[in-house]
Amino acid sequence: MLRRSQVAKLLIRIDIISGVPQTFESVLGASILKRAAEAGLAEVVVHNLHDYGLGRYKQVDDAPCGGGAGMILRPEPIFDCIEKLTEEREYDEVLFPTPDGAMFTQGMANELSMKKNLIILCGHYRGVDQRVRDHLVTREISIGDYVLTGGELPALVITDAIIRLLPGAIGDSESALGDSFQTGLLDTPWYTKPAEYRGMNVPEVLLSGDHAKIAAWREEQAFEKTKVRRPDLLDEEM
Ligand code: ADE
């Protein structure tokens, strides 16, 4: 982990466009995301879509053409915001979190963590004008088969999954590589002190000091857990 005084090379910049930018304050202002920003590894900039809104009331949405319930984000504020950003720098991708996108996976997080500049466009209300999706968005991503009220939480999920992979972002450089899904297996159980707590004991092998035996035990545990909980991950391997 880089110390506060160390200045790292900026590895990624993520621009998030949202109609509710205050959603991001607490998460970006805490934990690994904050430390990665302070260390200069990653820069996350949130843009208020209402700054590009139309008219006196800075309108960003409107009723769907052809009728229907709910409001749709209008194209003009989004085009204006993204055009302003792309005048300043070149972006690798414009991501759009949506339940009908491609499922977000560790592989996708790995791939995106190697990009330099990303935009994440958060939809809200019922959706976003299709012309935005057709002409600006390069990748549509779902974080799961359920519907959230907007793209803000998925944008944070994607940002967190990317930034924690950056070299130096988390304490132990090995720990991100050992994560569930990186290895193709779910994580092994972990224990810390005390060795005995209320009659519950840490498995003997972990106290043995025999590193080969410990590694074999962990692999076995990870494999067994994967077999029971996510056999689909084992099928993918074959
Ligand atoms: N927006 C609303 N629900 C979502 C989901 N499940 N994944 C990504 N974006 C979303």
List the helices and strands and how they pair.
Elements: E1 12-18, H1 25-28, H2 31-38, E2 42-48, E3 61-62, E4 72-73, H3 75-88, E5 93-103, H4 106-113, E6 117-121, E7 127-128, H5 130-135, E8 139-142, H6 152-163, E9 196-197, E10 200-201, H7 211-229, H8 231-237
Parallel strand pairs: 1-2, 1-6, 4-7, 5-6, 5-8
Antiparallel strand pairs: 3-4, 9-10
Helix pairs in contact: 4-6, 7-8
Adenine binds at residues 97-99, 142-144, 146-148, 151, 154.
What is the residue-mean pLDDT, rounded to a whole number? 93
Estimated radius of gyration: 22 Å
The secondary structure category is alpha/beta
Q: Topology as H/E string?
A: EHHEEEHEHEEHEHEEHH
User: What is the straight-line distance between the termini?
Assistant: 36 Å
Number of domains: 2
Strand content: 15-25%
The ligands found in this model are: adenine
- Name of the CATH architecture of the largest domain: 3-Layer(aba) Sandwich
| CATH homologous superfamily descriptor of the largest domain | SPOUT methyltransferase, trefoil knot domain
Strand order of the largest sheet: 2-1-6-5-8
3D shape = elongated
CATH-assigned fold name of the largest domain: Alpha/beta knot
* Major beta sheet summary: 5 strands, parallel
